[in-house]
Amino acid sequence: MSNPALKTSDPSSPDDPQQHDDAAGYYVPGDPIADTKAPGGPVEDKWDTRQFEARIVNPANRRKVSVIMVGTGLAGGSAAATLGEAGYQVKTFCYQDSPRRAHSIAAQGGINAAKNYKGDGDSVHRLFYDTIKGGDYRSRETNVFRLAQVSTNIIDQCVAQGVPFAREYGGLLDNRSFGGVQVSRTFYARGQTGQQLLLGAYQALERQIGAGTVQQYSRHEMVELVVVDGRARGVIVRDMVTGELETHLADVVVLASGGYGNVFFLSTNAMGCNVTATWRAHRKGAYMANPCYTQIHPTCIPVSGAHQSKLTLMSESLRNDGRIWVPKDAKDADKDPREIAEDDRDYYLERIYPSFGNLVPRDIASRQAKNMCDEGRGVGPEVEGVRRGVYLDFSEAIGRLGRPAIESKYGNLFDMYARITGEDPYEVPMRIYPAVHYVMGGLWVDYDLQSTIPGLFVAGEANFSDHGANRLGASALMQGLADGYFVLPNTIRDYLADSPFEKIEESHPAVVEARESAEARINHFLSNKGTRSVDSYHRELGNIMWEYCGMERTEDGLKKAIDLIRTLKDDFWRNVKVLGTGDGVNQSLEKAGRVADFFELGELMCIDALNRRESCGGHFRGESQTEDGEALRHDDQYAYVAAWEWAGEGEKPVLHKEDLVYEAVKMAARSYK
Amino acid sequence: MKLTLKIWRQAGPQAEGGIRTYDVDEISEDMSFLEMLDVLNEQLINDDEEPIVFDHDCREGICGSCDLMINGEAHGPEVTTTCQLHMRSFRDGETITVEPWRAAAFPIIKDLMVDRSAFDRIIARGGFVSVNTGAAPDAHATPVPKESADRAFDVATCIGCGACVAACPNGSASLFLGAKITHLGELPQGQAERDTRVASMVAQHDHEGFGGCTNIGECTSACPKGIPLDVISQLNKDLRTAIRHGH
């Protein structure tokens, strides 16, 4: 069927500014794409209008409508709980042994909401503006405004569920401040906000499971999407305990399967986070938008050695009280930091960005840390000849507020740091360095969160819509819960109002095809008898991605990366070694399927980065910088969402551009000085 | 470091299991225990032996996936999760025994992986506040004393790893249960369902085959999140009140 989201205008006109298109030859230009679901009128009214216009499924008919939810973190768990409450028949799938272990649980710092409880001038409009600006004018205005609007409901909902947010002595909620923002709008539960919010959503989900409206399938991984007559109608999942491939069919499929930062191997993501659910959907026709938009988080514990399996994030909230510095003189790099005199320290963020200081947005803090280390002023152990660390120092705050105050605010983070590094951060400054954290790219969705495949909706980190080129702190939790509790349950009903949909049998050719393709992949890996482990390929792919498609990218580097990825991918398919069988737990087999998809994604990320010859947010193109080395955006050429269409095995991807239109805010150069 | 590892291998739930011995070399003290197992698994794959199955995910001490008995202790010699246990806690040349959680209510799936879905079923029987989405009053409508909010948070940090069960000679999940009962019981939002919650969660706990609590206290000393033993007193108190109220 034709997709209403696609415009049928001519391909890019010949005067399209492609004079710097480094990616020419790597892709095929396609038709423009546009969001057709956001209603007209002022941005403040759009969400109310859409909720009113979206058709309704009457309560008696809802139990006849079935929904598949893949992923049960903040977005998927909250959406499934809400749809269950509404009376739909919901099936949820997660690869973990329980929805309570989704990686949302690891988010530390907090969740933003425009409550203005502090009376410091916050408002929906200000949260909206900060988020657009923090996204470097590369996110969609309509979606972000809605995010800011519903943010206030999230806090109400979570408090009612019993989420133990931090409180002041009067019993009211406390707030703190995060990077890129000059008001206190972040609600938090010590350093474990994601955990408490996820447990709230998980408990709401378990309540529905107990009530029988939701069926939960744990240790199940989606391995294919079923598309029948152009509509998403189900999934093929692998039961990771029995190894059995199961077919589940429904009226609508929602992917809330998180982000793909693990393409870099070393990241702050949980080990199991993967791209497979969204990539399988991409191969079936869902466009992948802005895949090269990766957030590099500035405050992670630095890499210690070659066997490291993951990087651990230290909450950005630490920057409220910690001061970041490096020695002025590289000769002091290996000194005990306590012996470096105040005058010999360079508090570089406070020096370069006096109004935001240590609370500059993540991309700026990350890049400056890299610059300091590249200059030779990094601290900590040398890894491959460079010291990759800067100090995050609490001595001034401990002196000002006392150690108990710091313990009560950040105690668990300090303990975690001490455990991992073997150093006491109350005595010696922490060492931090940037690491891959969150991805802003994901499946393209319209205002209703529907992908380019009708009946396939995408929520949370798995979609692209709200964060632009950079994500401000405490906004990912906000998006996950906004999508899950409030947006998706309201928009999906318009699609479901067309029900009853035609019933699909498991013998339908599209179902058989999906199942066979999943089987073929599994059989290939099990019968390949190669010589190299899956992890060794994953690690090597990750190194390529970090080196050439990480914090700083160049045309030459990206082209080199694409060649390296293609060569390694060929070798992977010929030479990967997966032992054991398919009829039980086989963790190497699970990883092989995921890494296979990471290869294809990694290549697309590099092509996307090549096409975007501008620096924006966390994505620094060496070819595009100001005289003093700051990121230089090109709004005249790149104010678009790059939505990539899969063209087939071995074919060049097709680039569809969605123009970003700003009506409520004026695009401006971002300055935090 | 050089280490000798004695590890429980079991091909499936019905298969007979046994200890196998492996040697590893060049282990750095900065590695986490799970990274050490990654190294062993790479070695096994090279030797054409199936890698050891174990549960893990976030590797930063918060998801609660990891579930290893190390030298007979839940999560190992330090009070933390296995992913946050570092090899600096062991000596060069040491022999380390690694087994899965031991509890009747946590059946073994394969090698070191166990089934903890009983915990989800306990939560599904009342470990929540019943509030439909969109029906909540303004968050500031009900002040919560800071002490209550802090206490609720402290016990809500339970990660559901099951170390308490594995450490308990009775295989009781009373610490897990008590943490949730106390978390929701501390807050005004949790009062309406207080009696029914404790009665039905305890009934499910017993139904799943967890043992009874005899106040041994191993649970709290093994808990990586420091959930205090007095949540069990709270659990018992709430249960008595519920029974008195006719539940």
TrEMBL record, chain A:
<dbReference type="GO" id="GO:0009055">
    <property type="term" value="F:electron transfer activity"/>
</dbReference>
<dbReference type="Pfam" id="PF00890">
    <property type="entry name" value="FAD_binding_2"/>
</dbReference>
<keyword id="KW-0249">Electron transport</keyword>
<dbReference type="InterPro" id="IPR036188">
    <property type="entry name" value="FAD/NAD-bd_sf"/>
</dbReference>
<keyword id="KW-0813">Transport</keyword>
<dbReference type="GO" id="GO:0050660">
    <property type="term" value="F:flavin adenine dinucleotide binding"/>
</dbReference>
<dbReference type="InterPro" id="IPR003953">
    <property type="entry name" value="FAD-dep_OxRdtase_2_FAD-bd"/>
</dbReference>
<dbReference type="GO" id="GO:0033765">
    <property type="term" value="F:steroid dehydrogenase activity, acting on the CH-CH group of donors"/>
</dbReference>
<dbReference type="GO" id="GO:0008177">
    <property type="term" value="F:succinate dehydrogenase (quinone) activity"/>
</dbReference>
<keyword id="KW-0472">Membrane</keyword>
<dbReference type="InterPro" id="IPR015939">
    <property type="entry name" value="Fum_Rdtase/Succ_DH_flav-like_C"/>
</dbReference>
<dbReference type="InterPro" id="IPR037099">
    <property type="entry name" value="Fum_R/Succ_DH_flav-like_C_sf"/>
</dbReference>
<keyword id="KW-0274">FAD</keyword>
<dbReference type="InterPro" id="IPR030664">
    <property type="entry name" value="SdhA/FrdA/AprA"/>
</dbReference>
<dbReference type="InterPro" id="IPR027477">
    <property type="entry name" value="Succ_DH/fumarate_Rdtase_cat_sf"/>
</dbReference>
<keyword id="KW-1003">Cell membrane</keyword>
<feature type="domain" description="FAD-dependent oxidoreductase 2 FAD-binding">
    <location>
        <begin position="67"/>
        <end position="477"/>
    </location>
</feature>
<feature type="active site" description="Proton acceptor">
    <location>
        <position position="362"/>
    </location>
</feature>
<dbReference type="Pfam" id="PF02910">
    <property type="entry name" value="Succ_DH_flav_C"/>
</dbReference>
<comment type="similarity">
    <text>Belongs to the FAD-dependent oxidoreductase 2 family. FRD/SDH subfamily.</text>
</comment>
<protein>
    <recommendedName>
        <fullName>succinate dehydrogenase</fullName>
        <ecNumber>1.3.5.1</ecNumber>
    </recommendedName>
</protein>
<dbReference type="InterPro" id="IPR011280">
    <property type="entry name" value="Succ_DH/Fum_Rdt_flav_su"/>
</dbReference>
TrEMBL record, chain B:
<dbReference type="InterPro" id="IPR009051">
    <property type="entry name" value="Helical_ferredxn"/>
</dbReference>
<dbReference type="GO" id="GO:0051538">
    <property type="term" value="F:3 iron, 4 sulfur cluster binding"/>
</dbReference>
<dbReference type="GO" id="GO:0009055">
    <property type="term" value="F:electron transfer activity"/>
</dbReference>
<dbReference type="InterPro" id="IPR017896">
    <property type="entry name" value="4Fe4S_Fe-S-bd"/>
</dbReference>
<dbReference type="InterPro" id="IPR050573">
    <property type="entry name" value="SDH/FRD_Iron-Sulfur"/>
</dbReference>
<keyword id="KW-0479">Metal-binding</keyword>
<dbReference type="InterPro" id="IPR017900">
    <property type="entry name" value="4Fe4S_Fe_S_CS"/>
</dbReference>
<dbReference type="GO" id="GO:0051537">
    <property type="term" value="F:2 iron, 2 sulfur cluster binding"/>
</dbReference>
<dbReference type="GO" id="GO:0006099">
    <property type="term" value="P:tricarboxylic acid cycle"/>
</dbReference>
<keyword id="KW-0560">Oxidoreductase</keyword>
<dbReference type="InterPro" id="IPR006058">
    <property type="entry name" value="2Fe2S_fd_BS"/>
</dbReference>
<keyword id="KW-0004">4Fe-4S</keyword>
<dbReference type="InterPro" id="IPR004489">
    <property type="entry name" value="Succ_DH/fum_Rdtase_Fe-S"/>
</dbReference>
<dbReference type="InterPro" id="IPR036010">
    <property type="entry name" value="2Fe-2S_ferredoxin-like_sf"/>
</dbReference>
<keyword id="KW-0001">2Fe-2S</keyword>
<dbReference type="Pfam" id="PF13183">
    <property type="entry name" value="Fer4_8"/>
</dbReference>
<dbReference type="InterPro" id="IPR012675">
    <property type="entry name" value="Beta-grasp_dom_sf"/>
</dbReference>
<keyword id="KW-0408">Iron</keyword>
<keyword id="KW-0816">Tricarboxylic acid cycle</keyword>
<comment type="similarity">
    <text>Belongs to the succinate dehydrogenase/fumarate reductase iron-sulfur protein family.</text>
</comment>
<dbReference type="GO" id="GO:0022904">
    <property type="term" value="P:respiratory electron transport chain"/>
</dbReference>
<keyword id="KW-0003">3Fe-4S</keyword>
